[in-house]
Amino acid sequence: MVTRTSQPHTSREKTASQSSSKSLASVEDGSQRSNLRAVHVPPTRRRSIAVIAAILALVCVTALALGLGLGLGLKHKHKSQSNVDSSTSNLVPGATASDLPFISREHLADPSQLTLDPTWNRFAPPQDRVYNWTLTQVLSNPAGVTKQMRLVNNLYPGPKIEANIGDRIIVHVENKMPVPTSIHWHGQYQRGSNEMDGSAGITECGIAPGTSFTYNWTVQQSGTYWWHSHYAPTYADGIFGPLILHGEDEKFRIINPDNATTTIPSNGTTVRANYDQDLIFVVNDAYQADSFSVAAFARSKSGPPGGDQGDEPVPDYGLINGLGFSNCALAPNGTSCISDDLTRKTAYNFTVPARKRVRMRFINAGSLASFRISIDGHSMTLIEADSTEVEPIVVQCFNIMVAQRYSVIVETDQPVGAYAVRAEVLDDMFAYDNPFLVMDQYAIMRYEGVSASTPPTSNAGNSTLVNVTESLSTSQLVPITRIDAPASNMTTKLVVNFGLDAFSQWHAFFNQTTFTSEMAPQASLMKAYTFEATRHALNTNSSVGAYYNDPDEMIVTNSEVVVMDVIVNNLDEGEHPFHLHGFTPFLIGAGAGNFQGPSNFSDTRINPMRRDVFSVPPFSWIAFRFVADNPGIWPFHCHLMPHMAIGLLMQFQILPDQIPLLAITDPFYSQCSAVNNWVQQNQKLLTSTGDPNDM
């Protein structure tokens, strides 16, 4: 790993030499937080008012931005004369755009990959489920304007995996892209197979261009999950797809002759647990630019085009199942752009039977934006959050953050017609405007018998909104299956802030460390496996629990099974969806400001909400608890792509004495050799800041 441990500066204007050192305690007590990052007005919208700085930033990067097409939210007052079809970042290795195959938007999404099998047998004996995936770099126009993409089997979203608990998943991955990749199976415990987690730089080095690798792991839980690339920022280019897993104990399931009238107890009554159709909806934001360029602007000294240093690049599109629309009036001159029309002929269209119950599984596979989901004329009964089945809640809409999943049941009891399934892009994390971005995206749900040319009925404001947001997770979302949180015997405190590193680049920090995995000569797990890493003494007297800080990485270690409370103090003005690999933690506490403690959270131990992605609002804290009994090295990180790209990741090393029992064999070491050769030839791609003098 390359982890820069320079203290985050108290002002963006300070140079590395001007930054004064502070102890970890001074950061934890929040005494310096107000100056760690310049606060925009209003603070919860992250809107920049530094007009002069923005103009200077635009001047510095205009040439590069125009070369990137729509330019990461660059306001198109002066349209580019170049054709977006041929514009790619000069950072990206490999074929030029003219050499890449073009896939038209109507061929990106495969409806069969977004519909679950109605005859699925969740009681079937365990079996091997084998998949062959080819990853390529292509051109396509998912939102109407041609852009460079990275896809699996030329699908966007990528192929569906559907399986039962006990099944063995075997995925042969052939990387034909000019950049490395890895595949992470989001939310999977991987108990006994940490090496299959797919986290580049941590559990593997990645899959180098022109090479192949096979993932082989066994399903251990059920629910709605997803898979995605976990190498650098590349999942933002299109490498993601649904992962739907079934179990015998699922409470909500599709109707078949054996269970057509099943009900379950809920809140003192009974509710119907069956449904007639099971559909997948992947929503995501996307950038016109290549993901490496987006990451470069995230850490840039100048900030992204249109923003300041520290501003997250604002996306250019919102998409539902791979399709969306743009503001064609602001597209660069000479660029083809598919405009909106009343029928949304190229929006994602699907058909439902009348007077039935349809399960819709929503997955936010995006990079930065949350979405507000609603269906014109229809309420929704929410039944699942991040694979945890919950007591049903009737809502009119809900917000879904990056990497989260929600399932709802929709009654098709309205007049036969066409209705919009809306995914509104939320701008709470946007520091500047992108007029090219169309905020209101939607798919079209048509009842059977309705003509494909029938436009959706306009009925956006259909009743009182009940937002299922993270603030409701510990109060309104209640797991159906009761699991009480055990008492904890270890506490770790993590402090989140942002600032400059010793090289004046913008980075995110956990306890003054920022993580960069792509330059690693060897993955964390392999270092532990072969005992090549220097052992550090456990700091058992620290108030933050037993942990050590390696000079190159931050790892919290437990050498015996413990029940760990983790307190995350967010000193940033933005909200962060955090994800813990290898576990589904209990959410046991949250509050505004800096966590003061101590607390044993005894009042939240009775069946607390469990989920693998949970948010920490601005200037707030959250506490989660997990039983640290799954041997391996497990990342914990913010799932916003720009924040991962600038280092907001740390690791939990669980039961290191058992790590040598994992099956880390030669393919992992040959992976590292091939990826390291690629890294040596492409260091600028991984370290560039997007500034003209750094290109």
Notes on the protein architecture:
By secondary structure, the protein is mostly beta strands. Among the domains are: 277-472, Cupredoxins -  blue copper proteins (Immunoglobulin-like, Sandwich), CATH 2.60.40.420; 490-663, Cupredoxins -  blue copper proteins (Immunoglobulin-like), CATH 2.60.40.420. Helix content is 9%, strand content 32%. It has 7 helices and 37 strands. The strands form 9 sheets. A 6-stranded mixed sheet has the order 16-15-18-23-20-21, with no helix packed on it. It has a 6-stranded mixed sheet with strand order 29-30-37-36-32-34. Strand 12 and strand 13 form a beta hairpin. The longest helix has 17 residues, at 51-67. 55% of the residues are buried. Residues 1-91, 460-474 and 532-549 have low confidence and may be disordered.
CATH superfamily of the domain at 277-472: Cupredoxins -  blue copper proteins
Radius of gyration: 24 Å
> Judging by the overall fold, what is the CATH architecture of the domain at 277-472?
Sandwich
Strand content: 25-35%
- CATH-defined fold name of the domain at 277-472: Immunoglobulin-like
Total of DSSP H or I helical runs spanning 4+ residues: 7
Major β-sheet, in short? 6 strands, mixed
**Percentage of residues in helical conformation:** under 10%
Q: Name the strands of the widest sheet in spatial order.
A: 16-15-18-23-20-21
What sort of overall outline do the alpha carbons produce when their principal axes are compared?
A: globular
Write down the CATH class of the domain at 277-472: Mainly Beta
Count the E strands: 37
Overall mean pLDDT stands at 81
Alpha-carbon distance between the termini?
A: 23 Å
